[in-house]
Automatic annotation (TrEMBL):
Domain WD repeat-containing protein 75 second beta-propeller: 233-315
Domain of life: Eukaryota
PROSITE patterns for this protein: RCC1_2, WD_REPEATS_1, WD_REPEATS_2, WD_REPEATS_REGION
Protein name, per record: Target of rapamycin complex subunit LST8
Keyword Cytoplasm: no
GO cellular component, one term: TORC1 complex
InterPro entries noted in UniProt: Beta-prop_WDR75_2nd, MLST8, Quinoprotein_ADH-like_sf, Reg_chr_condens, WD40/YVTN_repeat-like_dom_sf, WD40_PAC1, WD40_repeat_CS, WD40_rpt
Length: 334
């Protein structure tokens, strides 16, 4: 397994691991706050670390333990950073309610948009200058970055505080998680999709339509009794993995059913791992054979999703691990 793993948490350290061997190769101190998110750059050279209130970038090839760049605009926890796959841009969102887009060659935001509440997640959308956010008010919003305004909104029930989201651009699927124990899968469409496909709009109870776009419900998953802290798709959005406060790592989806919008295909689930305390993060390997997970039990674990066997443990953190990311050491990330 030619992978590097990066992790961060409440012990104010960022650690790099050789996934095959299980060794902790590099460690960076991040003393100013807990680590909210770690993320490899698209070329694997940098690691972005989201904290409170800065984002710091470390050059892992140079061996330096000092950040080579920091983004300083937010005034509270930076919840998430995401890189643009096509151009050297990145988005950040924060509990200070601000959404920012950055040119990675500069330390000033290109655009900043004020939301009406604390933001917990952000992803780039399908169209140019489009992104999605989720927030503590229980809503997902589609933003026009150029116009700095919300063009569509979906508000969940269940008195939901959304903790994060992921988006698959091929199938236009959004998965979001929150504090009610549920995971939500929605399809995002626009007027252009309608015209091209000749589809009829699904006016379900989980839909919210505007002139510019709309959401349609795919399914609602009972992932945990209370908090669902993370969910991620595999590479082709045929499966979803979730991590919850019960320590359970679950994989959702029936790979035999090719229709990604069929509700029942997502109700199939299996428990592939179990932590002793809260599970904060999880992600598939590229081949979907394994799942990495991170927990308050101070372990990163590698699970075989077919057997549920614990293949490897990565130990070194002294407190809860809140975020992990992986990068192939042989080829560029797709």
């Amino acid at each position: 397994m030619s992978l590097r793993v990066v992790s961060g948490g409440y012990d104010h350290t960022v650690r790099l691991w050789d996934a095959a061997v299980g060794t902790n190769d590099q460690t960076f101190q991040f003393n100013e706050s807990q680590v909210n998110q770690v993320q490899f750059s698209l070329d694997g050279r940098l690691v972005a670390v989201c904290g409170n209130p800065r984002v710091c970038f470390y050059d892992i090839q140079s061996g330096s333990t000092s950040p080579v760049l920091s983004l300083e605009y937010h005034r509270n926890n930076v919840s998430q950073l995401v890189f643009n796959e096509s151009v050297p841009l990145a988005l950040t969102c924060s509990e200070d309610s601000w959404l920012c887009e950055w040119d990675m060659r500069s330390s000033e935001p290109l655009r900043s948009c004020k939301s009406d509440g604390c933001l917990s997640g952000v992803v780039y959308g399908k169209a140019k200058d489009e992104c999605f956010t989720c927030d503590y008010g229980g809503s997902i919003k589609i933003w026009s970055l150029e116009n700095k305004q919300v063009v569509a909104r979906l508000v969940f029930g269940d008195q939901e505080i959304l903790s994060g989201m992921v988006f698959d651009p091929l199938y236009h699927l959004v998965a979001s998680t929150g504090n009610s124990g549920y995971g939500y899968l929605c399809r995002v469409e626009t007027e252009e999709d309608d015209k091209g496909a000749g589809n009829t709009k699904d006016e379900s109870t989980m839909s919210n339509q505007t002139d510019d776009g709309y959401f349609s419900r795919v399914t609602k998953l009972r992932c945990s009794k209370r908090y669902v802290l993370k969910a991620r798709f595999n590479h082709d959005a045929s499966l979803l993995v979730s991590a919850g406060d019960d320590g359970n790592i679950r994989v959702w989806g029936d790979e035999q059913v090719t229709d990604r919008y069929q509700e029942q295909r997502w109700q199939t689930s299996r428990l592939v791992g179990k932590h002793q305390k809260w599970a904060w993060d999880c992600c598939f390997t590229r081949d979907t054979r394994y799942v990495f997970s991170a927990s308050s039990d101070k372990r990163i674990c590698l699970w075989d999703i077919e057997t549920g066997d614990l293949m490897k443990e990565y130990k070194g953190h002294q407190k809860a691990i809140t975020s992990i990311d992986t990068f192939p050491t042989t080829t560029r990330r797709n």
